[in-house]
Structures are given as C-alpha cells and as structure tokens.
C-alpha cells in the first residue's frame, strides 16, 4: 500500500466503484434543518455553510464528540470545531446548534432529535451532511432511527482524486471506504440501519481491496 496522496492505478477502479456506491446522488432539497455529522473532515462544516448560504435550510445542527482519530485535530470536539469553522465562513452563530456528545452515527441522529425536541423545534425534513463516502450509511442509519424524517444527503462536491488530496492520506481514505462498505451490510444485520442495495460489483471491489490489505477500518 502507498502512503502518498494518490491512488495506485492497480486498485483505482475498485476504489472508484466504492466511492460512487456511497454517493447517494441526491438533489439537495430545501429542508427544515441541516445536520452535519462529526468526523475528521472539516469539509462537512464547509458544505453545511455553503448550503446554508444558498438558503437550503435556516438552521444547522453539528453533532459529534470525538473519536480516537479526531481528538488531536478537534480537541474541543468535532461539533464545536465545525461550528467555529462555519461561523468563520459567515454563518450566524445563532443559526447553529451543537450536539457535542455523539460518538457514532446512530447517536448523531438520536441525540440531534432529542436536542431539537428539547428546544421545541419541529422538523419534517433534513439535509444530512457528511463525508462523501458516509452518505449511504448516514441515510440508512437515519431511516432506521428517524424514519418519518424526509432526508437528502450532501457532501462537498469533490472528485475522488480531489478528496484524497484534501485529506492528504490515500490509505486513510481507502480504508474508510472499505470500512463503510462493510458497515452497510453488517449494521443492517445488527438492526442499526435499514438495508441498502449491495450490487455484485461493489462486493467484488470490496473483497479485492481487503485482499490487498485495506483492513484497518473493518469491524
């Protein structure tokens, strides 16, 4: 495996297959709230700010505490740093709520829902804003835990290569792609998410990347 910020040509087709699979290809619709899911990727907050400024929603909830992979980057918590970044990009502070306790995608949604209910804010629709390769898992998790919520998924509109460059670590991106692909099926089996289509070409690409050694994010 490489440690550079470029995708090895021998596995490029498989990486592209997984990348495209996780993109839900939704057309973002005007919604009651934008929900930004915490991670190592500050681009989530950038995307949320962009969509807010386009008038896609009047309120943003950033949700996320820390994972071992984010504590050094976001020492005050993912959601807190996301809010600070969005404010730097021009989003008013009073248009942002912070949910600072979630440590997984399920908690992102259950905690966000509870926070909105505590604030007596009624929402019927949301834009789920995540890393590009987290869209399908975010969608499947939300529909399990908050089925009545009408949702579309969004991420920064970056190509695979541009995203790898933005992260600066191709191994990390590929391992996360492989890990999220496994979670689509495994989490549905465990009842954490609704089932999603799982085409044969996606499974074949997933298996080949595991055989190549991209296993660090498997559960």
Automatic annotation (TrEMBL):
> Which Gene3D superfamilies does this entry report, sorted A to Z?
HUPs
| Ranges where the DUF218 domain occurs | 45-153
Question: What stretch or stretches form a coiled coil here?
Answer: none
Top-level taxon of origin: Bacteria
Q: Which GO terms describe its cellular component?
A: plasma membrane
| Descriptive protein name | YdcF family protein
Q: Which organism is it from?
A: Microbispora triticiradicis
- Taxonomically, what lineage is the organism? Bacteria, Bacillati, Actinomycetota, Actinomycetes, Streptosporangiales
């Amino acid at each position: 495996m490489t440690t550079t910020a470029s995708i090895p040509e021998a596995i490029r087709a498989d990486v592209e297959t997984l990348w495209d699979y996780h993109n839900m290809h939704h057309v973002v619709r005007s919604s009651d709230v934008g929900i930004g899911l915490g991670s190592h990727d500050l681009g989530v907050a950038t995307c949320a700010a962009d969509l807010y400024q386009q008038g896609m929603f009047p309120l943003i909830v950033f949700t996320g505490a820390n994972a071992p992979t984010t504590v050094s980057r976001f020492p005050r918590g993912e959601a807190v740093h996301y809010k600070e970044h969005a404010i730097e990009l021009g989003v008013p502070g009073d248009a942002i709520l912070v949910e600072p306790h979630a440590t997984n995608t399920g908690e992102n949604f259950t905690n966000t829902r509870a926070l909105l209910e505590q604030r007596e804010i009624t929402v019927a629709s949301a834009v789920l804003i995540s890393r590009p390769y987290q869209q399908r898992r975010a969608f499947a998790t939300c529909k399990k835990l908050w089925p009545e919520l009408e949702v579309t998924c969004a991420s920064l509109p970056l190509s695979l290569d541009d995203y790898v460059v933005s992260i600066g670590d191709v191994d990390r991106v590929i391992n996360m792609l492989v890990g999220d692909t496994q979670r689509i099926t495994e989490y549905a089996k465990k009842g954490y998410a609704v089932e999603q289509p799982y085409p044969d070409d996606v499974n074949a690409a997933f298996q080949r990347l595991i055989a190549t050694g991209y296993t660090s994010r498997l559960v």
